[in-house]
Fold this sequence. Notes:
Number of domains of chain B: 1
CATH class of chain B: Mainly Alpha
Order of helices and strands of chain A: HHHHEHEHHHHHHH
Number of strands of chain A: 2
Oligomer: heterodimer
Number of helices of chain B: 13
Amino acid sequence: MMSTPLFLGALAEVYAERTGMMICAIEGIFLIGAWGGFVGVYLTGSLVIGLLVAILCGMAMAALYGVVTVYMKQQQVVTGTALNILAAGVCAFFQRVLFGVPTTPLQIQTLPKIAIPLLSKIPVLGPIFFQQNILTYLAYVLIPVAVFVLYKTSLGLTLRSTGENPEAVDVAGLSVNRIRFLTVLVAGAIGGLAGSFYTVGYLGMFTSGIIGGRGWIAFAICFLGNWSPKGVVFGTLAFGLADAVAIYIQAVSGHTIFPNELIIALPYILTIVLTIARSNLSVPAKLGVPYAKEN
Amino acid sequence: MKKRLGVPLYNIGAVLVGLVISASLLLFLKLNPVEVIALSVKKIASDGYTLGEILVKATPLIFTSLAFAFTYKANLFNIGAQGQFYAGAIAAIALSLSLGDRVPQGVLLLIVLVASFASGAAVGGLIGFAKSRFRANEFLVSMMSTYVVSALMDFLLRTTLQETKAEYLQTDAIAKSTYLPAILPGTRVHLGFVLAVVTAILIWVLLYKTPLGFRIRAVGYNHNAAELGGIRSGKIYVAAFFIAGGLAGMAGFTEVNGVQHMLLQNFNTSIGSFGIGIAILANGNPIGCIFASILFGFLNVMGTTMGRLPGLNIPASIIDLIEGIVMICVIMSYFVRKAAENRSEKQRLKKAGGK
């Protein structure tokens, strides 16, 4: 399902934002993950290595973001924006360095769909849910894990406190900056994986526009899901549904009833509408605020 | 006042570091960076046309950076400058095409100017309204608005605005009488640049010398305190976004009437994002935006020139790379400067206390 990368990305964002870090570089992380995954698979022929490269790329970008925003305490929005531009440049430039200008688009094998025995035989729902690639199954597993970790473990409590009341965490003897940085790294890893879904998991090719703003939709889902994994699940499904409806309408009516562009704009319009409707969001208190110890 | 002098120095240093890093990436292409840079700079300096291109590229950047900086002063994030720019461009092309040769040039340019401002302002105003009335997160709304306006533009390019040949998704070229006149012979520099600089100065005056500007900045510093002082922050949000949107819309006017002379898909796709970077570089100061935009224009031209150097095959994406790296370096330079300032402050205090 196309929602998988959105879900993974949004989940990563939720964890990061709960600690107070707004990863505005998520679009860039998606992109570099997509590119890294593509290059990894292309150069080695191994899907596993491709995914690993995607994770590493995502982490590298996240690390840069983390250093600048956590340790150098700079503005998160701007750093994210700069990194997004940088990611686009890096991918395009190194794509050229590695592959020159190919006459036909380069292709790689994609993740195979794995049918879970028994479960995939359930009529209607079976094939939809249980004949997916491994990243989607990872997402299924992560849902309960994420909920459990965030709300029922002390790690989750620490993460949430870092975003609401970092002073308390600091007084308890933990390093706020380290927690934030590590969370950003993990989020970057997952984000990179999410980005690779588009190349390794779906398209088999890399183009510079492959992410097309979907990193931002994941970002939006984090907001709209009220910063909870459950909300993210609903948000992702809602977007996936909107996407499917759009494709259906397009197939059925062609260009006649609804213009093509409206369909494309639908997820974004949906985000705006939801953002306006959900005015009672519980924003983590210290979102976007760098933590500086009172000296 | 000592601090003010230090800032440009650090920023220039950061830019240089950024350029060095970007240049060293050329090694990946098995090229000698020093040679490439020297060649590029020589080419730029020797050719009046290329020098002019710097200003041509800087023009829309001045507008989009103002669009971000203006709302930034109110502590709002206008990520939608790209969309507001497109909105202004749509208005500009629509009017230029329809009023083409029927209205004298001066009048037409004035009309289009106002229309493109209004168009961008409308988009901006809607975002501001969403923020003030529904407490919607303006970051998300403005970001999404860009995609929506972009889709709208694509739709119009396919239907009502499409060229008579109906071959590509672009409009007809506008009549010569609707062009923004060129001001430097031998270059593409047009009146739009002057307009941009004048606008930046006017915005500076607006922000720092008028009651409205005061209210905007007050809301930016502390909107609760501002409310206590009698300023309705909701109205300010709308006003700030309205003006900012209009500013970005004006970029649509200059690009359509001054440079492209038509509207096509995917043009100037990054000026919104670059505008954000420039605004931060300039610390939200409108006059600073002028200089920072010229700098980015220079980087852009540098990238294009590198790409045109014969036989070297440097890809166009080097521009994004250079600008991204420079932005990161400038952001880091803020940190370095702060650390240095803190250190010298501490030393001064130590000395004073020790005595």
